[in-house]
Amino acid sequence: MNTVFQGEHLLPGQIGQFFIVLSFGAALLSFLSYYFATTDDAGKLNSSWQRLGRIGFIVNSIGILGMGICLFYILYNHYFEYHYAWSYTSRSLPVYYLVSGFWNGQEGGFLLFAFWQAVLGNLLIVKAKSWERPVMTIVALSQVILATMVLGIDILGTRIGSSPFLLLRNSGIEAPIFARPDYLSFIKDGQGMNPSLQNYWMIIHPPTLFLGFASLVVPFAYAVAGLWQKRYKEWVQPAISYTLFGAMILGTGVIMGSFWAYESLNFGGFWAWDPVENGSIFPWLTIVAALHVLIVFKNSGHSYFTATFLVLISFVLVWYTSFLSRSGILGESSVHAFTDLGMFWQLVIGILIFLFITIGILIWRWKELPITKKDEETYSREFWMFVGSVFLALSCFHLIVVTSVPVWNAMFGTKIAPPADAVKHYNVIQSAFAFVVTILTGFTQFLKYKKTDITRFFITTGVYFLFAILITALIVAVTGVYKLNVVFVLVMCGSVYSVVANAKVLVDAFKGKFKLAGAAVAHLGFGFLLIGAVIAAGTSKVVSKNESGELAVQGFDEKAGNVKENIMIYKNVPVKMGDYTVTYLGDSISTPEHFYKVDYKRLDANGKVLENFVLKPKVQASREAGFASSPDTKHYLTSDLYTHITAVPSQGFNMQGGEAAHDEGNDDKNYDEPVPHEVVVGDTIRYRDGFMILKSINKQATVQNIKVGPNDIAIGANIEVHANNTIYNAEPVFMIKDGNAFDFSRKVDDAGLKLRFSRINPENKKIEITVFQQPKNKKPWIVMRAITFPYINFFWSGTIIMVIGFLLSIQRRNKELKTV
Amino acid sequence: MKKSAIFGLVVIAVAIAVIISVYSSSSTYATFAEAQVAGTELHVIGHLNKKKELVYDATKDANYFSFYMNDNKGEERKVIINSTKPEDFERSEQLVVTGQMVGNEFHASKILMKCPSKYTQDKLDVTEVKAKQASI
């Protein structure tokens, strides 16, 4: 068994593995040291445990950086003896996609999570002051657990974690070549990257999302520290800034994912309620709810338990999300092809540790929690903020219940399937929650903390509400939202109300109460986001319906889903599609991308061109990977026109990577039976798709690379082909050289024609033109699907506005921190 | 009663409503035989019968695709969907089709396929490796 393998680069992997073990050990040391610093050295100013904890944490950070550098080194140099490099990259990948290859695998995702947590931990070491010891105990614990996920070491016969530095020959793949010492010389290239990940959004979306996930550890750690150290009320103030930060980054990461889906995936939209997508918003919903209740508590002293619980559960949900997407449990309900790395139970343990901390510490300190016995004022802002937060949490609860169906099945041995029309189910129920939440983000703006003047409140609220209803009616009528389920009209109304109410606050803010601007801007953004989402998703229309030539499939009714949403068009044959006339112009390859040019024309009643543009949806193909379609979108201010390819002729696709050799003599079989025509100049030849005219005879015809001698004759027939409303010219040549007759055919590919000047008939002075016509199904075609998304810019701009709002709020809370 | 208690009851009521609504709109995984009886939208898990013909001809109808599938009990039915043929369909390992039976045909509104994608499954392409060996 002591084969010496040739050509392997084991050093970077060994160093990387060393860094993994180092970071694990250092995190463990840091955790224990910080723990003892909190307990044994409590109250001591100069704690050696604390020093040790810091050293441990910094070494842990260095270890994580080291791992990252080793992994990148391996990817960059294409060391395919490593499973990770072999699985996720290939030589043809540009360097900037090697960066996304870094987090293509789950190990890379954990690494990213650990990296951000390390960054935040170092920030806390500098900034947390008196909170450092207990808070860092928790952060270091989280680092320990994360490090076990990438450990890849066998302990007592079970492998703990999955290392990114696993060698291909040790990865469990059975192949006879691994018995050969020179096996590596047969592994020329890696498997490449999933084409849908080769997108610039995949370079920035995962780091943002993981920063969002990682940042939730900070409020979690503060909450635990607060209860542990009995500093029940103090932890809230510093935790608010971090909570705001987490909510902002996580929200941005989620929307970036949706933008990636919209721009480069082919499922036709920006949100599909896929389990993995849902998973990413669980913690966002709870942390946003937590944020509001934290503010309630800070201002009024109410809702302590809810605030603490929501903060704690958010981080547990981060782990639950990890579990859902990484354990393979979603196998039968998600299109996201994540696989089980054999870490199912390890991930479950990860969740349970944080769940036990959450429950344990709340029970332990239950009697001492500063829960007010006094009832809240009904007309106070904090009461309704609290209600809104609970509804956010309930909407999260609904998402969890449905998304976790496979988990319930695994736990209880049931065989429940997710709702058959999942999108509709989610849309309706989540919209109901969204309605309540948006109404609350609206009218709480007119309430004051503690107590409000009731009459005045009802008058202003009523006026604004009436105004919102009028605007809603207008929007609903113009966009056609009224045709949808009434619940969408309600969301629209709630969102509009939220926008107008918060706009009022914003105007007031500019008049002086500037510190309120952050919340108002964030709410405004959220309102716009929902308005955009409802209109775009609710009234998006499939444009690609070809009304002519439809074949009815027997027994098929509308109920059976996306009926006739795809349209097939032949090259250069214009087809009417909705308001547009579309023409497939041709394709071009720029490896690994295959672009299909589709011309869109919009004509007025008189046939005048109002608008003309070309979209280039693409199909990406890496070696063997086949087909990954990416849309191309025409962006207007008020709508988007989205087009993607759903099918192409398979032979057309195989041609990439080297055009199929053109074998002149043999390609006759690609055409219908040839038809000879005897003609003179000026004659017209008719054929299936049009006609052609013999314009003239060229007695000085030339053929490339063939010299015409003094006794030779070369005659060309100038033919004008009229097809597809276009005129093409072709000149087939007839030649007599050294006593032998040759003819050189000419192709008009766009018209699917091949023309031969096959004979001269000296008796009647006619010439013979043989017409080869491609059978209709051999002509190039594409099948595409086009959708319009009205007012989708509200969705994107709403997101940006919301982020600006968060930034303003963070600024405000940080200022408060300094003054306290 | 305290207001917080009333609100607590409201929350519990909503939570129960959520669970009921999920329960009522969730379907079950079924076999073709069960789908035939049920007559409603169901999920059927099974495998593509690779020996039988897959019909997709965009030049005839770009929105018609049919194939034969065996459910987990081994029972075979023709499945029809009004859409294009998903790429790499032939390679699928497992299919989850959502739809209902119409006569003896299953009319699907959605197909979820699990492919042994080279991105997710470790499989050395040994044939390729062998070919290279031979060339040395």
From TrEMBL, chain A:
Keyword Signal listed: no
Domain Cytochrome c-type biogenesis protein CcmF C-terminal: 352-556
Entry's Gene Ontology molecular function annotations: heme binding; heme transmembrane transporter activity
Transmembrane parts of this sequence: 15-36, 57-76, 108-126, 138-160, 209-228, 240-261, 281-297, 304-323, 343-364, 384-408, 428-447, 454-478, 484-507, 519-538, 791-810
Keywords, ordered alphabetically: Cytochrome c-type biogenesis, Membrane, Transmembrane, Transmembrane helix
GO biological process: cytochrome complex assembly
A Gene Ontology cellular-component term: membrane
Residue ranges of every copy of the Cytochrome c assembly protein domain listed in the record: 111-327
Keyword Ribosomal protein part of the UniProt annotation: no
Pfam family name, one: Cytochrom_C_asm
InterPro entries: CcmF_C, Cyt_c_assembly, Cyt_c_biogenesis, MFS_trans_sf
Entry similarity comment: Belongs to the CcmF/CycK/Ccl1/NrfE/CcsA family.
Protein name stated in the entry: Cytochrome C biogenesis protein
UniProtKB/TrEMBL annotation, chain B:
Protein name as it appears in the record: Cytochrome c maturation protein CcmE
Domain of life where this protein originates: Bacteria
Principal location class: membrane
Location relative to the cell: Membrane
Gene Ontology cellular component list: plasma membrane
Keywords of this entry: Cytochrome c-type biogenesis, Heme, Iron, Membrane, Metal-binding
Signal peptide: none
Gene3D superfamilies listed in its UniProt record: Nucleic acid-binding proteins (2.40.50.140)
Gene Ontology molecular functions: heme binding
Keyword presence, Nucleotide-binding: no
Biological processes annotated in GO: cytochrome complex assembly; protein-heme linkage
Keyword Ubl conjugation attached: no
